[in-house]
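dumping this here before i forget
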Amino acid sequence: MESADAYSYLYMLGPQQNVTEWSTSSTSSYESYHEEGYQSTSPTPSERSKSRVTPLVLRKRRLAANARERRRMQNLNQAFDRLRTFLPQLGQDRQLSKYETLQMAQTYISALYDLLDQRQS
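structure:
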């Protein structure tokens, strides 16, 4: 196991091991980690029951996330409504879409900038 593949597994080795020791080891890697004092990262059964999220908690989180998203969209829609009040009306009886509002705002700002630029010249 002296090929390039052997070095890709170096991160799995313990502090005192090298590639030749690891490849010739007769014990499984899990046993050697346990013997060398490595701690398991998986929770014990008692910790697992504590860390599980109940369906009630999941439902409350989902309802809270939905409420935040609804509030965000309401604020965004209010901002678009406010922007529409500053844009000139072109005799349209329908409300501009969000995309149309942004296009109209961009055009209106450019026209105002050009108007100011002409005055200074």
